[in-house]
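Hi Y.,

Following your request, here is the sequence exactly as I used it, all 225 residues.
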Amino acid sequence: MPVSLEPPGVRAILVSPLSQKGRPVCTQRAREYHPTVFNRDEKLPPVRLAVIQYAIAAILAVLVFGLWRLQVVGGQNYHALAEANRIRKVPILAPRGKLFDRDNRLIVDNYPSVSCFLVREQNQNVDADLPLIAKGKVREMYGLDDRLLMVASDRISTYDAVHPTPIPDKGKVLTGLSVFWFQMTKEIVANHLISATDDVPEEVRGRALVVRKLKMLPVECVVRG
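Below is the corresponding structure, written out as tokens. Let me know if you'd prefer a different format.
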């Protein structure tokens, strides 16, 4: 049966129970009275649609600007921060401890050390000024007027083989031992040492000796053990 609707101030509206599609059938008067119910399938007004489009465009612009600021403007800074967070220097003390004598005096301590050693193949300063006379497995001989400059390198040799990895300051140790024993035995037998400091180039100071030119006696004596 038809239903009578009588809201205040509005004439009665006749609405049939159901249409063939299952929706209420109303008159034009009911459509005008309830626009939010009967206009759901209609398109949005142009103004509202433009506002939504501008809002979406503004959000996208903000995202693009933020990405540009991170990648282009602050890219180097953020890259440095990332590298610092991934790679960092951590000082590690040597596992060896301090050594004291019987009077509790410190004789061995740990301290940072930086070594600089000469490798002739990588440093040509000596060759540029002095002629190379001879080269052995460990030492090298340079001409110095009527004298010779004997330079001890940091190379390691085993019999006739020279190892690829040098030992830092090995040449200085060898030179120091030679100077010590030459000084200790000079009153017993004469030697070829002239000086370990005078006329020694700065780049090989501490690992070179200025010696006399002598006639070599081709005899070698090796003491091991």
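The radius of gyration is 48 Å.

Thanks again,
Q.
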